[in-house]
């Protein structure tokens, strides 16, 4: 084989290897999607089924109402109005969603994660203390944001926002998934159904079982 032939063969092998390296499974669009062998038992796809293009209308790409604030009359003093694929079908397969966040004075969007999305947040009114915590060894990144400031929360990391201003606050957030999901840490740990074993929680948090029971009661009311 000539040197050119050897070069060509080597280049082909590199290209094939590169193609294998860049191959990957599609990102999950819900918590899980269990495979079935019999299609008659299949009720879900990774995402949503697509509407016949001939039946699509402009309204499929439109959502109204984000000019209206959500109620903050709750324990946390905050409200998230999420526009994801469940509320706007045109988002299907596009990898994006949007949220309006309203905060009463001292209102908190408590520590939570989005398992499928990075979040970018912009403050429109008020002052927010925001932050996220990295994976182990758990470094905190935090800033105080004012009107016009932007902050990014990387995918899958615990993050929060607290209104530290003197009045209500308003923010909008873009998320890099049509269905970002949300796991509020305290609710998940102390309010799961069925509950996590108290033996697990007392050892994990190094507290008496009575403390665990009191916390669980807070998230079951």
Fraction of residues in helix: 10-25%
Give the SSE string.
Answer: HEEEEEEEEEEHHH
In total, the number of strands is: 10
Strand order of the largest sheet: 1-2-9-4-7
Low-confidence stretches: none
Count of runs of 4 or more consecutive helical residues:
4
- What average pLDDT do the residues reach? 90
Name the features:
single chain, 221 residues, alpha+beta, five-stranded antiparallel β-sheet, 4 helices
Explain this structure.
The protein has 221 residues and is an alpha+beta fold. Helix content is 19%, strand content 26%. The chain has helices at 3-21, 185-190, 198-205, 209-218; strands at residues 78-83, 97-103, 108-113, 119-125, 128-133, 140-145, 150-153, 158-163, 169-175, 183-184. The chain has a five-stranded antiparallel sheet with strand order 1-2-9-4-7, with no helix packed on it. The chain has a five-stranded antiparallel sheet with strand order 6-5-8-3-10. Helix 3 (198-205) crosses helix 4. It is globular.
Put the structure in a nutshell.
The protein has 221 residues and is an alpha+beta fold. The strands form two sheets. The protein has a five-stranded antiparallel beta sheet, with no helix packed on it. It has a five-stranded antiparallel beta sheet with strand order 6-5-8-3-10. The relative contact order is 0.14.
């Amino acid at each position: 084989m000539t040197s050119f032939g050897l070069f060509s063969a080597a280049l082909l092998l590199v290209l094939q290897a590169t193609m294998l390296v860049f191959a990957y499974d599609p990102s999950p669009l819900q918590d899980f999607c269990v495979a079935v062998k019999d299609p008659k038992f299949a009720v879900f796809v990774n995402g949503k089924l697509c509407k016949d293009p001939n039946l699509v209308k402009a309204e499929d790409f439109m959502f109204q109402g984000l000019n209206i604030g959500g109620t903050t009359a709750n324990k946390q003093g905050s409200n998230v109005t999420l526009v994801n694929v469940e509320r706007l079908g045109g988002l299907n397969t596009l990898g994006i969603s949007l949220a309006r966040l309203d905060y009463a004075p001292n209102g908190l969007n408590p520590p939570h994660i989005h398992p499928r999305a990075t979040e970018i947040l912009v403050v429109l009114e008020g002052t927010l203390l925001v932050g996220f915590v990295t994976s182990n060894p758990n470094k905190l990144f935090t800033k105080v944001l004012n009107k016009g400031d932007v902050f990014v929360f990387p995918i899958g990391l615990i993050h929060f926002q607290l209104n530290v201003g003197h009045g209500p606050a308003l923010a909008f957030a873009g998320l890099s998934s049509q269905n970002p999901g949300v796991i509020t840490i305290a609710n998940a740990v102390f309010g799961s159904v069925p509950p996590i074993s108290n033996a697990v929680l007392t050892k994990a948090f190094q507290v008496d079982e009575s403390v665990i029971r009191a916390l669980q009661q807070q998230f079951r009311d």
